[in-house]
Specification:
10-stranded mixed β-sheet, Spore Coat Polysaccharide Biosynthesis Protein SpsA, Chain A, 2 domains, 11 helices, single chain, 3-stranded antiparallel β-sheet, globular, alpha/beta
Length: 368
């Protein structure tokens, strides 16, 4: 057995398996065998699904990282675009693990599989369409050293196709259950320039203490995609953990490259999972205090999206969300048992302005 950074890993048949987390080992991986001296400090997890257009560009950025004590775990969600062909031959300088899934199991499942293969103290999650600056990892690692009171970190995301606009600066969570990336579509020259405590980290470019990720249960695999990072951040918050936005850690994010920003896919999973998150995670008495606002907000956006021509997607999302309520309530019982923060203190890190989510929605969906 090899012990590294508080993580227990077992080298068996030429591959490393974690034995201290809840995620089962994954078979048939292409994996690098590590010695004790070469085990990485950071495990970078990249989930890809038909992302050939962006994946190699993303991977190129890891050849020039100023912080080198990392591995890359690439989880392919059943792609059909041959994005992984000759990948390991091209990136031989990197410590690279590749896990090929037979079908698209979703962003949440794929990242959990990546976490099950990781042996770093820290998990850095990065979308395949996010392009990190050469010092991205260095800045995140330095933030962990300088801010030990925080255990997960969010990057400064800039829109890859318009670098004068932000793609996000950490996540905000509203008492109605809605969430959004701070400063999305706002100018980069005067916003998001300072570190800040934020509600949670956008999973497109985030850093988590691996021990906390596992203890919280990882991403909820029923979510498939969308809102899983907010849900995880909420559960970490309930455990007493804090998130820091690191403006020096920069990535250029294309955003929704595989699913589309305004498509029915994002509407369905975004709103279904938003409802589940509110039910599972919002502690009493805040749940009952803000339930009317939550229901009113869901109804408002259901009507708006119906008028916009996406009525089938939004009503399907609402119906499936309420069909899944018994399971969400069962999860809630477990989650709330681990509550280590006072509801009043949690409220301090939430957005509570009545018009906040509507203004953000208008800004996010305006046509350029």
């Amino acid at each position: 057995m090899i012990l590294v950074h508080g993580t227990s890993c077992l080298v068996k048949n030429g591959r490393i398996q974690n034995i201290d987390g809840q995620f089962p080992p994954v078979e048939n991986s292409i994996i690098t065998t590590y010695t004790m001296q070469s085990l990485p400090f950071v495990s970078v997890i990249i989930v890809t699904w038909n992302s050939k257009k962006h994946l190699s560009i993303c991977m190129d950025h890891f050849l020039t990282q100023t912080f080198q004590d990392f591995e890359v775990i690439l989880v392919d969600n059943g792609s059909e675009d041959h994005a992984l062909d000759a990948l390991q031959e091209k990136y031989t300088p990197l410590r690279l693990q590749v896990e090929r899934l037979d079908s698209n199991l979703g962003f949440a499942v794929a990242n959990n599989i990546g976490a099950s293969l990781a042996c770093g103290k820290w998990l850095a999650l990065l979308n395949a369409d996010a392009l990190p600056e050469p010092d991205w990892l260095e800045k995140l690692v330095r933030a962990t050293e300088e801010n030990p009171e925080f255990s997960f970190f969010s990057s400064r995301q800039i829109q890859a196709n318009d670098r004068h606009l932000l793609d996000g600066a950490g996540d905000a969570y509203h008492v109605s259950g809605l969430a959004w990336r701070r400063y999305y579509n706002r100018p980069t020259d005067h916003l998001g320039l300072q570190p800040a405590a934020v509600f949670s980290a956008c999973g497109a470019a985030a850093l988590y203490l691996r021990e906390d990720f596992l203890q919280a249960g990882g991403f909820d695999e029923d979510y498939f995609s969308y809102f899983e990072d907010v849900d995880l951040g909420f559960r970490l918050r309930l455990m007493g953990k804090r998130c820091l936005y690191v403006p020096q850690a920069v990535v250029y994010h294309i955003g929704s490259a595989s699913t589309g920003k305004r498509g029915d896919f994002s509407v369905y999973y975004g709103y279904r999972n938003m409802i589940w998150t509110f039910v599972k995670d919002m502690p009493s008495p805040l749940l009952w205090l803000y339930l009317p606002l939550h229901l009113g907000t869901v109804l408002f956006f259901a009507m708006y999206l119906t008028i916009r021509g996406q009525g089938k997607a939004i009503w399907h999302a609402i119906l499936d969300a309420y069909r899944g309520l018994p399971k969400s309530i069962a999860k809630r019982q477990t989650i709330q048992q681990n509550l280590k923060i006072k509801p009043a203190d949690l409220l301090q890190v939430m957005s509570s302005g009545l018009l906040d989510p509507y203004m953000e929605f208008i800004r996010r969906n305006r046509r350029k």
